[in-house]
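Notes from hallway chat w/ T.B., transcribed later so I don't forget. T.B. wanted the structure written out for a chain they're using in a teaching module, and asked if we could keep both sequence and C-alpha coordinates in one place. Agreed to drop them here.
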Amino acid sequence: MIRISGGRIEIRVPKIPPPFPSRVYATTVWPFVFYEPQVWDDECVQLHERQHWIDQIKWLVVPWLIVYLLLSIKYGGGRRHPLEKKAYEAQDRCNERSVNVAPNS
Protein backbone atom coordinates (compact mmCIF):
# COMPACT_ATOMS: atom_id res chain seq x y z
CA MET A 1 0.00 0.00 0.00
CA ILE A 2 1.21 3.51 -0.81
CA ARG A 3 -0.01 6.93 0.26
CA ILE A 4 1.30 10.38 -0.56
CA SER A 5 1.09 12.91 2.22
CA GLY A 6 2.68 16.36 2.27
CA GLY A 7 5.23 15.36 -0.35
CA ARG A 8 6.20 12.17 1.48
CA ILE A 9 5.79 8.89 -0.33
CA GLU A 10 4.74 6.50 2.41
CA ILE A 11 4.98 2.79 1.74
CA ARG A 12 3.72 -0.07 3.87
CA VAL A 13 6.15 -2.96 3.81
CA PRO A 14 5.89 -6.38 5.48
CA LYS A 15 9.22 -5.88 7.30
CA ILE A 16 11.91 -3.19 7.44
CA PRO A 17 14.89 -5.02 5.92
CA PRO A 18 18.48 -5.30 7.12
CA PRO A 19 20.71 -3.46 7.81
CA PHE A 20 18.04 -2.01 10.13
CA PRO A 21 17.66 -3.79 13.48
CA SER A 22 14.55 -5.90 14.00
CA ARG A 23 13.26 -3.38 16.57
CA VAL A 24 12.91 -0.73 13.81
CA TYR A 25 9.32 -0.59 12.54
CA ALA A 26 9.62 2.50 10.34
CA THR A 27 12.39 4.33 8.54
CA THR A 28 12.83 7.34 6.30
CA VAL A 29 15.06 7.71 3.27
CA TRP A 30 13.81 10.88 1.59
CA PRO A 31 11.39 11.07 -0.15
CA PHE A 32 10.22 7.68 1.07
CA VAL A 33 8.93 6.66 4.48
CA PHE A 34 8.60 2.93 5.06
CA TYR A 35 6.24 1.53 7.72
CA GLU A 36 5.59 -1.99 8.90
CA PRO A 37 1.86 -2.84 9.13
CA GLN A 38 1.66 -2.49 12.93
CA VAL A 39 2.69 1.20 12.77
CA TRP A 40 1.18 2.17 9.40
CA ASP A 41 -1.66 4.15 11.02
CA ASP A 42 0.23 5.25 14.15
CA GLU A 43 0.12 9.06 14.09
CA CYS A 44 2.91 9.31 16.66
CA VAL A 45 5.29 7.15 14.62
CA GLN A 46 4.35 9.24 11.60
CA LEU A 47 5.40 12.40 13.50
CA HIS A 48 8.70 10.73 14.40
CA GLU A 49 9.44 9.82 10.78
CA ARG A 50 8.27 13.23 9.56
CA GLN A 51 11.02 14.80 11.69
CA HIS A 52 13.62 12.63 9.90
CA TRP A 53 12.05 13.52 6.55
CA ILE A 54 12.37 17.25 7.32
CA ASP A 55 15.95 16.84 8.57
CA GLN A 56 16.90 14.96 5.41
CA ILE A 57 15.53 17.81 3.28
CA LYS A 58 17.51 20.37 5.33
CA TRP A 59 20.77 18.40 5.35
CA LEU A 60 20.26 16.58 2.04
CA VAL A 61 19.89 12.83 2.25
CA VAL A 62 23.45 11.58 1.74
CA PRO A 63 25.13 13.94 4.26
CA TRP A 64 22.38 13.17 6.79
CA LEU A 65 22.82 9.41 6.35
CA ILE A 66 26.62 9.66 6.65
CA VAL A 67 26.39 11.72 9.85
CA TYR A 68 23.70 9.38 11.20
CA LEU A 69 25.86 6.32 10.59
CA LEU A 70 28.99 7.93 12.05
CA LEU A 71 27.12 9.03 15.18
CA SER A 72 25.70 5.50 15.48
CA ILE A 73 29.20 4.23 16.17
CA LYS A 74 29.33 6.28 19.38
CA TYR A 75 25.68 6.45 20.39
CA GLY A 76 24.09 3.36 18.88
CA GLY A 77 20.52 3.67 17.74
CA GLY A 78 17.32 4.77 19.37
CA ARG A 79 16.92 7.48 21.96
CA ARG A 80 20.65 7.95 22.65
CA HIS A 81 21.34 8.99 19.06
CA PRO A 82 21.54 12.81 18.63
CA LEU A 83 19.62 12.74 15.31
CA GLU A 84 16.79 10.83 17.02
CA LYS A 85 16.30 13.37 19.82
CA LYS A 86 13.77 15.69 18.13
CA ALA A 87 11.97 12.75 16.51
CA TYR A 88 11.47 10.98 19.84
CA GLU A 89 10.44 14.23 21.52
CA ALA A 90 7.71 14.70 18.89
CA GLN A 91 6.63 11.07 19.21
CA ASP A 92 6.57 11.23 23.02
CA ARG A 93 4.47 14.44 23.03
CA CYS A 94 2.03 12.77 20.66
CA ASN A 95 1.87 9.64 22.82
CA GLU A 96 1.26 11.76 25.94
CA ARG A 97 -1.61 13.58 24.22
CA SER A 98 -3.09 10.25 23.14
CA VAL A 99 -2.96 8.90 26.71
CA ASN A 100 -4.34 12.11 28.24
CA VAL A 101 -7.35 12.31 25.91
CA ALA A 102 -10.46 11.39 27.86
CA PRO A 103 -12.66 8.69 26.34
CA ASN A 104 -15.67 10.02 24.40
CA SER A 105 -14.24 13.55 24.31
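Follow-up for T.B.: Residues 2-99 form one domain. Might be a good example for the class.
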